[in-house]
Amino acid sequence: MAWLLLIVAGCFEAGFAFCLGKAKEAVGMEHLLWLAGFLGALTASMVLLAKAVQTLPIGTAYPVWTGIGAVGTVVLGILFLDEPLTAARLFFITLLIGAIVGLKAVSR
Predict the structure, then answer these.
(1) Which of 31, 2, 22, 3 lies closest to 73 in space, CA to CA?
(2) How far is it, in rounded angstroms, from Cα 86 to Cα 27?
(3) If you ran DSSP here, which 8-state letter would residue 7 be given?
(4) What are the angstrom distances between the C-alpha of 32 and each of 25, 42, 46?
(5) How many Cα neighbours within 13 Å face the side chain of 76?
(6) CA distance linking residue 47 with residue 52, whole number of Å
(7) What's the whole-number average pLDDT of the chain?
(8) Who contacts 8 (Cβ-Cβ below 8 Å, separation ≥6)?
(9) 75-86 pLDDT per residue, tens
(10) pLDDT category of residue 23 using cuts at 50, 70 and 90
(11) What is the DSSP string of 24-90?
(12) Which end of the chain is more exposed for a tag (fewer CB within 10 A), N or C?
């Protein structure tokens, strides 16, 4: 269950970064709504991370959480924010995913 909470927390981390990216482009009420989404996703991410580390070691949970958030943010940026999809980016995203899977594999 803690791993599921951690994965969802990482997805919310990508969500708050995405909202921040959208907020920088928006104006007026739309800007405020993206900032509200940022705060909501940030809160959910932190609460779920805190719950997950009650069971998982912080030295494993934190890097996995940030890795999921980083990969998710890159994917969202490519899909929705017109960020480039290059061979180098794919290579490093793949390395990051490998590190996340490796940390899970070696943790108790």
Answers:
(1) 22
(2) 30
(3) H
(4) 11, 15, 21
(5) 18
(6) 9
(7) 94
(8) 48
(9) 999 999 999 999
(10) very high
(11) HH--HHHHHHHHHHHHHHHHHHHHHHHHHTTTS-HHHHHHHHHHHHHHHHHHHHHHHS-----HHHH
(12) C
CA 63-48-103 angle, 5° bins: 25
Q: Which two tokens stand for residue 85?
A: 């999809």
Band (48; pLDDT cuts 50, 70, 90) = very high
Token code pair at residue 97 = 């995913």
Scan for tokens 């009420």, then name that residue. Answer: 29
Residue 97 burial (CB count, 10 A): 14
**pTM over 0.85, yes/no:** yes
Closest CA to 59 of 108, 16, 95: 108
Residue 42 has pLDDT above 80, yes or no: yes
